[in-house]
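Hi R.,

As promised on Friday, here is the backbone we talked about, encoded as structure tokens. Could you run it through your design pipeline when you get a chance and send me back a sequence?
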């Protein structure tokens, strides 16, 4: 059972998300918060599998809550899915830097929101596909997440870890990567568990951003 916390300052959004997720098999809404302070308290108390956070909330913003829940030394660590009305702005970039596992626009299709919750609970990052390239391009050009500090990626990662990072940046799931490399899924998970701390990031999503930002893969151009 995937245990979910919902935090949003709009009653209709809270009610809609709660109804949507409660209707899904294998998903349980264990808490609902109307502001960031309440969201953080509930997350620390309930330790949900996924915290669905709005960005702009009274008390504490979703980004501030995410920093508390997603930090490498957070105890407990709670994966965060940001649901926002904002497109390319500092709120979205701040969410990436905070270590969220994914974000979607609030007007996403219901099935996309449900899928995102399941992916984040499974340890898979998710980004609204209509924004992925634009977000990566803007983020890479405007922010510095975790620079390599002059070290070549070959010195930071093993050849296999480098290969997995490239496949991850293509949007592949663990199963996809395992099939591509003809290895067990458990092997891919083990490699990913070593890759993230080496890069100084806390989520698959940040690992992908790191790969683009450090030119491990090419940043998509505006016309692509």
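Update: got your reply. Pasting your designed sequence below so it's all in one thread:
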């Amino acid at each position: 059972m995937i245990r979910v916390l919902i935090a949003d300052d709009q009653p209709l959004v809270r009610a809609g998300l709660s109804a949507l997720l409660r209707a899904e098999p294998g998903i349980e809404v264990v808490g609902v918060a109307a502001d960031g302070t309440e969201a953080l308290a509930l997350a620390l108390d309930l330790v949900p599998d996924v915290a669905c956070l709005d960005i702009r909330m009274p008390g504490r913003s979703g980004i501030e809550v995410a920093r508390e829940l997603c930090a490498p030394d957070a105890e407990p660590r709670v994966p965060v899915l940001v649901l926002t009305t904002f497109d390319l702005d500092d709120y979205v970039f701040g969410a990436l830097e905070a270590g969220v596992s994914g974000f979607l626009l609030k007007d996403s299709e219901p099935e996309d929101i449900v899928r995102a919750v399941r992916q984040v609970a499974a340890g898979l990052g998710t980004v609204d596909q209509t924004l992925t390239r634009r977000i990566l391009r803007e983020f890479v050009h405007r922010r510095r997440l975790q620079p390599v500090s002059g070290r070549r990626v070959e010195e930071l990662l093993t050849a296999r870890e480098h290969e997995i990072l490239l496949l991850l940046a293509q949007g592949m799931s663990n199963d996809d990567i395992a099939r591509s490399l003809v290895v067990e899924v458990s092997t891919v998970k083990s490699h990913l568990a070593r890759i993230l701390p080496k890069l100084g990031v806390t989520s698959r999503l940040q690992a992908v951003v790191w790969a683009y930002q450090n030119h491990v893969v090419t940043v998509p151009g505006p016309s692509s």
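One thing I noticed while checking it: The beta strands are 2-7, 27-33, 50-53, 80-84, 102-105, 126-127.

Thanks again,
M.
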